[in-house]
Amino acid sequence: MVLQLSAEEARRMRWHAQLLGGSDLPPADVVDRAVALQGQDLPAVLRAIALRSGPGTTLQDVRAAFDNGSLVRGWPMRGTLFATTPEHLAALLFFTAERIHRATTRRREELGLDDRMIARARDVLLTALEERPLHRAEALALWEAAGIPTTGGPGYHLLMHLSVAGDAHWGSFAPEGTEQLLTLSPLLPPADPEAALTGIVRSFVRARGPVTEADLAWWTKLPRAVLRRALPGVEDLTEVEVQGRPAWTIGEPPEVQDGEGTGVVLVPGFDEWILGYADRSLVASDAMLDALVPGRNGVFRPAVLVDGIVVGSWRLSRTSGTRTEPVIELVEQVPAATRRAIEQAVADWPYR
After folding, report:
1. Rounded CA separation 158/120 (Å)
2. What is the mean pLDDT of residues 338-345?
3. Which residues pair with 72 in a beta bridge?
4. pLDDT tens for residues 291-322?
5. Packing angle between helix 86-103 and helix 193-208, nearest 10 degrees?
6. What is the chain's Cα-based Rg?
7. Which of 45, 80, 158, 185 has fewest C-beta within 10 Å?
């Protein structure tokens, strides 16, 4: 018999799956467990990793995982930057690279990037990366010096295109700042692609469940027929229903006590709590999503969760020097005691 879950039960299960209460894992293991975390906003993804890691994990601890090569950042899906592991990056690109390149053909034409120019850009970049990692500005300057225009879009697209091709990724941090360096990617395709795909599917469900097939297809941007090939290999895939809709978890769903809440939790912008799913109605109202992504411009603000429901956004606004002032914008109504708890959580935010 398929387990029936209410929306409240599903949110509590997701909260545990997403490690929003923290874990005993180091940063690299947190990301490996989740396959990848959306990372176009670098400060945000560092915080997303830290809050899911072991007690006392700092942002410097997360940076150290990039510095030692345990974590990387690239474009494995949807033309979007993700933080992931070298192994997951190689496996994902094995399945997605050709599709991403096909999907961006028109954009390359608009930017005037033909095959000859891309090949030239690749030769210039790889020759330099064999010597040392590069700042973004250094890579663009090398292309400009070689007669390859970079302003107005071509530079960014070349970085993305060559990274999707498996030539480079964002790796260690520059000693003088918070910028990641472009690094050579000696990525090897998975020895057993089907096993790798099965592992990706299992990890996605384990780190976000309950999820639907639509969630998995949206997140990976792979055809459902391809994803369905992997399902029989996930031996502990468990079918459940969330408000009558089919979904999956891994293993036996944990017992959740009636009335067990998860309280106030802050997440950074672009967090997987919201972006890990095609359908976000379980955690946010339409009005809340409009406020969280003003103008639906694709820029997701940091979110305030109360028992897994997004009730508002928050940020620390710099006033002068290193001093910051909390800014909390609530959309959903909350009791006065919850408002005080939110204010305290923002004041106590450890990942500054």
Report:
1. 11
2. 96
3. 84
4. 999 988 889 999 999 999 999 999 988 766 66
5. 100
6. 21
7. 80
> In the beta sheet, which residues pair with residue 37?
83
Can you give the pTM of this predicted structure? 0.95
Residue identified by tokens 């050709």 is 98
236: left (phi over 0), alpha (psi -120 to 50) or beta: alpha
pLDDT the model gives residue 187: 76
Map residue 230 onto helix, strand or coil.
helix
63-69 contacts at long range (C-beta below 8 A, 24 or more positions apart): 63/173, 64/27, 65/26, 65/27, 65/28, 65/31, 66/171, 66/172, 66/173, 66/180, 67/172, 67/173, 68/172, 69/171, 69/172
Helix axes 59-67, 27-34, angle to 10 degrees: 70
Per-residue buried b or exposed e for 299-338, using 16+ beta carbons within 10 Å of the residue's own CB: ebbbbbbbbbbbbbbbbeeeeeeeebeeebebbeebeeeb
**Structural contact between residues 271 and 48, judged by C-beta atoms closer than 8 angstroms:** yes
DSSP state of 134: B
Count the Cβ atoms, other than its own, within 10 Å of residue 172.
17
The bridge status of strand 80-84 relative to strand 36-38 is antiparallel
Q: Which two tokens stand for residue 229?
A: 């090939």
Cβ neighbors of 182 (< 8 A, separation 6 or more) are 125, 129, 133, 134, 135, 136, 139, 159, 168, 169, 170, 171
Q: Which long-range contacts (CB under 8 A, 24 or more apart) does 80-85 make?
A: 80/38, 80/40, 81/38, 81/39, 81/40, 81/170, 82/36, 82/37, 82/38, 82/39, 83/31, 83/36, 83/37, 83/39, 83/45, 83/49, 84/31, 84/35, 84/36, 84/37, 85/28, 85/31, 85/32
pLDDT at 259: 59
Q: Per-residue pLDDT for 15 more than 60?
A: yes
Q: Which amino acid is at 126?
A: L
